[in-house]
């Protein structure tokens, strides 16, 4: 073994030792960086250990449940249309946008953007391989997207039947999400992925259900208020437009979903998982 390999091995042993010594306090004091990181790595490894079918079903459930955000977005947009200026409606949507996220995250379903940084940490800590990460991402993304397709079909049919929104509303929402330059969507998705990765970190730092609800509402309301692109909610929004309006093309949908997924992943991995992990490593190295 070369000197460089020996040094890396010793460094990894020191990191593992420091993580092992990070015990979560039952007191009211805030968790340390090491405690949060340790919890995130453990939770990430637990997901790796789950059965593939279980992961796919949990991811599909998340894709379905996130549709309740879309249901409320469409209903509120339709209800306020003509009564309030459209730009004001788009800001007010931030009050209902978090509902689906609260259902998914507190219900422990697997949402790609919330799990991106979480699943990356065991790889950075050399407990899992890059190949296993990409395989897991593939399962989660597939489940989230399929769930989104199913709920989009249901909501596009039931909305007009219940007269809570119409297909014109569906089209307007889809166009609002996609009517940007490709670079804008990509950078917006990076910021959204950054915030969602940070949300996962903050939830691990919190100690009560109420504080977690407040954190989920705060972060996802910011996403909605400033119009950042979230791949899984956006999947429902744009796919619903695709199946109900000629204004959204299959090419436009595919470009959007690829940019949003890649941007969200990059934001979660680089700005949360990598930076948080490296900050801890440099602290251990002293």
Automatic annotation (TrEMBL):
UniProt topology in membrane: Multi-pass membrane protein
Protein origin, superkingdom: Bacteria
Keyword match Chloroplast: no
Comp. bias intervals (Basic and acidic residues): 1-23
Keyword Acetylation: no
A cellular component term, taken from the record's GO annotations: plasma membrane
GO terms of molecular function: formate transmembrane transporter activity
Principal location class: membrane
Subcellular locations according to the entry: Membrane
Listed transmembrane segments: 55-80, 92-112, 133-158, 184-204, 213-233, 253-275
Region (Disordered): 1-31
Keywords: Membrane, Transmembrane, Transmembrane helix
PANTHER family: FORMATE TRANSPORTER-RELATED, INNER MEMBRANE PROTEIN YFDC
Protein name: Formate/nitrite transporter family protein
């Amino acid at each position: 073994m070369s000197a460089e390999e020996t040094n890396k091995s010793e460094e990894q042993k020191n990191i593992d030792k420091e993580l092992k010594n990070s015990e979560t306090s039952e007191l009211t004091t805030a968790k340390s960086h090491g405690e949060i990181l340790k919890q995130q790595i453990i939770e990430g490894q637990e997901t790796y250990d789950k059965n593939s079918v279980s992961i796919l079903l949990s991811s599909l459930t998340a894709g379905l449940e996130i549709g309740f955000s879309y249901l409320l977005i469409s209903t509120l947009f339709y209800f306020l249309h003509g009564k309030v200026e459209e730009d004001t409606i788009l800001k007010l949507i931030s009050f209902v946008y978090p509902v689906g996220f609260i259902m998914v995250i507190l219900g422990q379903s697997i949402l790609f953007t919330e799990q991106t940084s979480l699943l990356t940490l065991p790889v950075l800590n050399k407990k899992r391989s890059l190949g296993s990460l990409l395989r897991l991402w593939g399962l989660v993304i597939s489940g989230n997207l399929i769930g989104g397709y199913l709920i989009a079909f249901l909501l596009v049919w039931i909305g007009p039947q219940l007269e809570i929104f119409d297909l014109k509303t569906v089209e307007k929402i889809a166009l609002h999400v996609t009517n940007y330059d490709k670079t804008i969507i990509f950078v917006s998705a990076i910021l959204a992925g950054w915030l969602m990765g940070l949300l996962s970190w903050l939830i691990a730092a919190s100690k009560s259900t109420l504080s977690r609800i407040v954190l989920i509402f705060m972060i996802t309301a910011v996403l909605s208020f400033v119009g950042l692109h979230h791949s899984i909610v956006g999947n429902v929004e744009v796919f619903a437009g695709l199946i109900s309006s000629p204004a959204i093309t299959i090419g436009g949908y595919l470009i959007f979903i690829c940019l949003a997924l890649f941007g969200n992943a990059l934001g979660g991995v680089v700005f949360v998982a990598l930076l948080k992990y490296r900050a801890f490593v440099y602290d251990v190295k002293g």
